[in-house]
Protein backbone atom coordinates (compact mmCIF):
# COMPACT_ATOMS: atom_id res chain seq x y z
CA UNK A 1 0.00 0.00 0.00
CA UNK A 2 1.36 3.43 -0.95
CA UNK A 3 1.48 6.56 1.11
CA UNK A 4 -1.89 7.83 2.17
CA UNK A 5 -2.58 11.30 0.84
CA UNK A 6 -4.28 13.78 3.16
CA UNK A 7 -7.18 15.79 1.81
CA UNK A 8 -6.96 19.42 2.95
CA UNK A 9 -10.64 20.20 2.43
CA UNK A 10 -13.78 19.72 4.47
CA UNK A 11 -15.41 17.67 1.74
CA UNK A 12 -16.08 17.54 -1.95
CA UNK A 13 -17.72 20.84 -2.92
CA UNK A 14 -17.79 22.05 0.71
CA UNK A 15 -15.87 25.12 1.89
CA UNK A 16 -15.41 27.11 5.10
CA UNK A 17 -15.75 30.87 4.66
CA UNK A 18 -16.35 33.98 6.70
CA UNK A 19 -20.06 34.82 6.94
CA UNK A 20 -19.27 38.46 6.14
CA UNK A 21 -18.27 37.42 2.58
CA UNK A 22 -21.90 37.60 1.52
CA UNK A 23 -21.42 38.05 -2.23
CA UNK A 24 -18.68 35.44 -2.57
CA UNK A 25 -20.62 32.92 -0.48
CA UNK A 26 -23.75 33.48 -2.59
CA UNK A 27 -21.79 32.89 -5.81
CA UNK A 28 -20.29 29.71 -4.41
CA UNK A 29 -23.72 28.44 -3.34
CA UNK A 30 -25.17 29.33 -6.75
CA UNK A 31 -22.44 27.13 -8.25
CA UNK A 32 -23.54 24.18 -6.13
CA UNK A 33 -20.87 24.49 -3.44
CA UNK A 34 -21.94 24.15 0.19
CA UNK A 35 -20.63 27.07 2.25
CA UNK A 36 -20.07 26.59 5.97
CA UNK A 37 -20.18 30.24 7.01
CA UNK A 38 -18.43 31.09 10.26
CA UNK A 39 -18.46 34.18 12.40
CA UNK A 40 -14.84 35.12 12.80
CA UNK A 41 -14.77 38.61 14.25
CA UNK A 42 -12.16 37.66 16.85
CA UNK A 43 -10.10 35.44 14.56
CA UNK A 44 -8.97 38.37 12.41
CA UNK A 45 -7.50 40.16 15.41
CA UNK A 46 -5.04 37.32 15.83
CA UNK A 47 -4.14 37.39 12.12
CA UNK A 48 -5.62 33.95 11.58
CA UNK A 49 -7.98 32.50 9.01
CA UNK A 50 -10.62 29.75 8.75
CA UNK A 51 -7.88 27.14 8.46
CA UNK A 52 -6.66 28.14 11.93
CA UNK A 53 -10.02 27.00 13.36
CA UNK A 54 -9.82 23.51 11.89
CA UNK A 55 -7.90 20.34 12.48
CA UNK A 56 -7.10 17.31 10.31
CA UNK A 57 -10.17 15.24 9.49
CA UNK A 58 -9.91 11.48 9.26
CA UNK A 59 -12.21 9.82 6.73
CA UNK A 60 -12.81 6.26 5.61
CA UNK A 61 -11.50 5.52 2.14
CA UNK A 62 -14.22 5.03 -0.46
TrEMBL record:
Gene3D superfamilies: L-arginine/glycine Amidinotransferase, Chain A. GO terms for molecular function: arginine deiminase activity; transferase activity. The keyword Repeat does not apply. Pfam families: ADI. It comes from the Bacteria. InterPro entries: Arg_deiminase. Keywords: Hydrolase, Transferase. GO terms for biological process: L-arginine deiminase pathway. Belongs to the arginine deiminase family. This is Amidinotransferase family protein. It comes from Mycobacteroides abscessus subsp. bolletii 1513.
Amino acid sequence: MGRRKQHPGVGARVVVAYERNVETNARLEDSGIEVLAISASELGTGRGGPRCMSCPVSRDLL
